[in-house]
Amino acid sequence: MARFKIEITRDALRQTCRLGRVRVIAINEQAGAADKVIFECDELCNSKTGLKSGEDLALPSGRYKLEYFLSPKFSSTLQKDILKVDFNTPLICIYNDKSDGNTSDDVDKTRRILIHWGNTEKDTIGCELLGYGRSSEGITNSRNACGDFYRLMYEIAPLDKTQIENVELEIIDNLEA
Questions:
Q1: CA–CA distance, 40 with 23 (Å, rounded to integer)
Q2: How many CA atoms lie within 13 Å of 11's alpha carbon, on the beta-carbon side?
Q3: 45-96, pLDDT tens digit by residue?
């Protein structure tokens, strides 16, 4: 099975949010061959990071695992309004587990840190938001970016399993105020 990486590089710290770039990268397993970026968009998350559950905090830098999650709040909108498909459309839940040798702190699945749409820090609730443009305190064209992202994810990470084994996520903070 082909391997992929979602790389979120946060490059701007604003008063209310952090902004960055998301790249989905196809990992080339052949020696000397280059990896290939197959998707890019902007990202927004809360200005403060942390691990406390129930708080509106962005995930800290680190490597994370992914699984599909049918969100009562977002899946119906993704299915009917954004993708316009007739099958269940789970969102991606970000988590990790130090017991696997992960260098990041634990982020339990029950926190339900999702990748979804929204335009400002008020829409994050700790989640990662996608968009196709930036403003000083937000992102734009979020539903279009999410639609393209999830179409790609459903293609490269089969929906027949909850656990997304062939894709990892890495968050890198490279911030400038």
A1: 5
A2: 9
A3: 999 988 877 778 899 999 999 999 999 999 999 999 999 999 999 999 999 8
Quick check: 102 pLDDT over 80? no
- DSSP assignments along 30-53, one per residue: STTPPPEEEEEEEEEEESSB---T
User: Which of 172, 173, 140, 165 is closest to 68 using CA atoms?
Assistant: 165
Q: Which of 145, 141, 144, 166 is nearest to 155 (CA)?
A: 166
Q: Are 59 and 48 in contact (CB under 8 A)?
A: no
- Find, among 97, 98, 94, 78, the residue nearest to 86 by Cα: 78
Is pTM beyond 0.70? Reply is yes
What does DSSP assign to residue 159?
A: T
